[in-house]
Amino acid sequence: MVKKEFKAESRRLLQMMVNSIYSQKEIFLRELISNASDAIDKMYYKALTNDSVTFDKDNFYIKLTTNKDDRTLTIEDTGIGMTKEELEKNLGTIAESGSFAFKKENEMKDGHDIIGQFGVGFYSAFMVADSVTVLTKAFGEETAFVWESDGVDGYTIEEAEKSHTGTTITIKLKENADEENYDQFLEEYELKSIVKKYSDFIRYPIKMDVTVHKPIEGSDDNETEEVSEEQTINSMVPIWRKNKSELTDDDYNNFYQEKRYGFDKPLTHIHINVDGTIRYNAILFIPETMPFDYYSKEFEKGLELYSSGVMIMEKCSELLPDYFSFVKGMVDSEDLSLNISREILQQDRQLKTIAKNIKSKIKSQLKTLMKNDREKYETFYNAFGRQLKYGVYSDFGANKDDLQDLLMFYSSTKKGLVSLSDYVDRMPEDQKFIYYATGDSYDRIEKLPQTEMVADKGYEILYFTEDVDEFAIKMLREYNEKEFKNVSSGDLGLDTDEETKDAEDNTPAEHKELFDEMKTVLGNKVSDVRISKRLKSHPVCLTTEGEVTIEMEKVLQAMPDNQNVQAEKILEINANHDIFKALEHALTNDKEKLKLYTNVLYNQARLIEGLPVEDPVEFTNDICKVMV
To answer: What is the model's pTM?
Structure first.
């Protein structure tokens, strides 16, 4: 028996392929099963083009067999087989793909698309094998041949006996090493798991002898015994290739559970079939609950990516924008340009086209859900609304037009979540702005002094309770040509007689001395002290001018890279409150008491805003002085 050298590549290249091309050793089984599927597809095509050849699908399968004593794993198929010349060409030359050549020469029909392209998948077996034996008999040939190699420097080919057409690959597994467990590829459970993960939707049955427990005949004690039974371990027909009309919600829910996309039930699903320039199928799910690690660095976004029914990526992040990272599901396409390992795409043009369509479908489905089933949408929004708001804020607002119609906020009048469209549709004709207030909770916002005047006008106020809310709205700026206005902003835009009068002079001459004195007491803690336009029953509040609000200040100062960003704060005093008379009296009669009152009022205003008192000891002492 003469050993032949590999024609195109050296031992070093083969070792590089085995050790570098594939990210995980278990992928060898995916590659060999895909090759076996291609071999059966070639028989199918031959039957289409040759009337003398019949194709009975029941006679075509792939079989996995293990022998723990000999440490061998066998992959057998009943496909077209190979001649001696094809063995020489396809296995003797690394990176020579018989499947790819066949695909170029013949147009496949009825969805039977050849998987192989590069001719290196077979050699992935050497990641786990000491040696590989290929016994094959080509269709229409009398003689079988056996090919053997240890993957080092060459191979042998000789005649052999085989009763039927097809190919049997026998892998002699390596011995276990310190960090490598090759025994796992002899275990029934592990092989089933790998098939389920990568090759579940190969269109031909993948069979294996499986251990099952069956009752012992004649036993009165319900005793069972272990027996070996041949079973088909793959699903074969993927749900996404079935007609939507044939499928029920239960079918989609079962698929969601089988794929372990989550422990919950999906709120809704999206089934996409596209047969255009780029053909693909997709099933997407909107989950009901947020994964426990969703906002951690361990969470990976992405959809499962299949090529002709074979999974090539478990998490393809390029298919989803970050703001839709909660979506689960899969995409299958026959038109993807894969790299040599079938794990990474060679070019992303096709992927970008698919991703763009998927983004549009998700947005459309969410808008439909909001319109037709508000309760379900609110369940979704309570889980993932924060992510949509992050999407509005991120990338300098590039995605705000896509997301603004999906946003919801708590309403002061409806006492529940409303969309921006709902709010604008209800606005009175004289209302110029969309008003909002910020705080830690709805109850706390409800009690804010700054909301009094806006509420008295009968205007609806949106309550912002999440750290990202105001940042997102600042990026959005307006909705349907209506600007957003914080009830704590300097100018409320209400155009009341009182506001117009105050706008002419925030500090009337008779109060100028009082406010100048209070400003001196507070120093740079506030930029101004003035009469309030908005307070009705409360004595004091803090408002802001400029882009940074008090809530934004709190968020920014809580960040690790805190740059001590400060809002430009204004202390507003209610001139109609009894406290104002006390201030005027102190100005005339007791400047120390005025200082005391000023500090107490300032700290009260900080507490109302949820800001910490700068000196708690001094504040409590001041309260005691007021009480005495």
So the answer is: 0.83
